[in-house]
Amino acid sequence: MRRSVRVGRTTLAALALIATASCGTAETIAGSSEPLAIDPHPTTMPSPPPSTQLASPSPTTDPPNQPTPTDATPAPPADEPVIPSAAELRAARSQPVEDPYYPDTSNPEVDALHYFLDLSWDGSRLTGEATVTFRAAAATEAVRLDLSRSLTVNAVELDGTPVDYQQAGDGLELLTGPLEGATTYTLTISYAGAPTSAPAPSYRPDLAEGLGWNVDSDGSVYTFQEPYGAFTWYPVNDHPSDKALYDAVITTEGDDVAVFNGELVSTEPADNGTTNSWHVNEPVASYLTTIAIGPYTEHTSTTPSGMRISYWLMPRDEHLLTGLQGSGSGAFEWLEEHAGPYPFSTLGVVVVGGRSAMETQTMLTMSRGAVARPDAVLQHEMSHQWYGDSVTPVDWQGVWLSEGWAMYMQQAFETDTGLPPFAGGLKAWRPFDLASRRVSGPPGDYNPESFGDLNIYLGPAMMLDEIRQRVGDATFAELAKAWAADHENENVDRQTFEAWLHDETGEDFRPLMHKWLDSAKTPR
Fold first, then answer.
1. Contact between 294 and 315 (Cβ < 8 Å)
2. Binning pLDDT at 50, 70 and 90, where does residue 52 land?
């Protein structure tokens, strides 16, 4: 049973329903991503009165259209997997680690470089072929990937030669025979089944449906998968330390279409349905991948600075479009000013079922409840594109690096734009942070069964504010941009941040970080 700590008349559970996002936003937690089960937001927070609504720069709105490619380049046929060039694969190299909190979904012996996913969904059954280009960290004779027990593997090939395999629990062991360390290989894995979600290691109500593949009551499909869950629909080294490139060809039936990360490069008719092909230009951590299937239509608009943003909505959600476009444009312009140039080449938002929101890379996943209050929630998830998606914690003990920065940027955005502050604003967060620490532990050493509680949001954001007070507003503004730029498309940890701060400022912030990240109580 979830314990509830009272702060006045507000419980942490209720607060989590006020905030709004998977590991989305603190609002999701309170009410419901960044990473997934991390943002507090029940999505029930009332919208601000008209006088306080954000006056966003007016985006240029393109006419609505059925899903069409954003690029004229046709995708190869589904039976011809896309394999990136050697230079592209080098850019996707990682140094995977074993996770200290969730070791069952991490394999430091595998460095996945590229996933080509050829998927078909008929409304109840998923059929897939995953082509995984990878390096072995050292010489080995077997490779382990994560794959749900609800999916059955039918065949595996290594560089075109069949190999034996074993499925046990949510793992897939591939008996490859001798592999050389640092050498690139290609696995082709054919599988099928009826995907099921995985239980979340969290008390958050927005994650009660489970992580990974979810089928909504209307038959549409969505995913929220932080700290894991990608393994519920494709074989993967499901850990943030192993970023990889992605291409996906997804076939659906009837009026349904599939939305994925990155750029839609082609849409083709299929037997009784549609095949959408997607390409992602930059490496992605598995928890930041997304898939949504339903009767979606794509709407596009362009921000004043020229960024094209796509919005994918089902007919029942079309009324949310205007608010989303205004909020998206305003958040993007503010973030480019305060966080620096956008780190990726594409940006979109897909509205789904569920009760959370998630910073899925280049294609934000937003439940319709979260979209009811789009300004702060969308800005929080968008800020994760810099802090969390491009600059990614190496393991789940460091999730505060993502959520602390995103929460700090959210409160700064609310202050600058006159939006009602989350939970009364930064100066009012201490009692909520204290209550969360009592239940879930300090942000730097939290209870693994309490993933995504307020402790990883509020305390780290207040820590960043104390750093701001010490170095001054102007210096901190430059630090916020430099942290994102200096570690673009990298994995980082606490030691990385401590050393970087020292190099940038000449000061030792380790004592300050220790009191905020490791204390059982909120520092004074």
1. no
2. very low
Region 263-274: mean pLDDT is 96
In whole numbers, what is the pLDDT of the chain averaged over residues? Answer: 89
According to CATH, the topology of domain 51-63+303-383 is: Neutral Protease; domain 2 (1.10.390)
What's the CA angle centered on 357, arms 352 and 360, to 5 degrees? 90
Q: Per-residue pLDDT averaged across 48-57, rounded?
A: 33
- Kindly provide the b/e burial profile for residues 473-490, where b requires at least 16 CB atoms within 10 angstroms of the residue's own CB: eeebeebbbebbeebebe
β-pair type (348-352, 363-367): parallel
Place of tokens 């076939």: 251
pLDDT for 25 beyond 90: no
CATH 1.10.390.10 residue ranges of the chain are 51-63+303-383, 394-518
What stretches of 445-491 show up as alpha helix (H) in DSSP? Answer: 458-471, 473-486
Under 8 Å between Cβ of 449 and 201: yes
CATH of domain 394-518: 1.10.390.10
Q: What angle do CA 346, 349, 350 make, to 5 degrees?
A: 130
Q: Residue 79: its pLDDT value, please?
A: 56
Residue 521 has pLDDT above 50, yes or no: yes
Give me the helices (H) in 133-216, please. Answer: none
Q: Which residues are within 8 A (CB) of 37 and not within 5 positions of it... i.e. 6 or more apart? A: 22, 23, 29, 200, 201, 202, 204, 206, 207, 211, 224, 226, 227, 356, 451, 452
90 Cβ neighbours under 8 A, 6+ residues apart:
none
- Is 50 exceeded by the pLDDT of residue 11? no
Q: Minimal CA–CA distance to 227: which of 144, 288, 283, 168?
A: 288
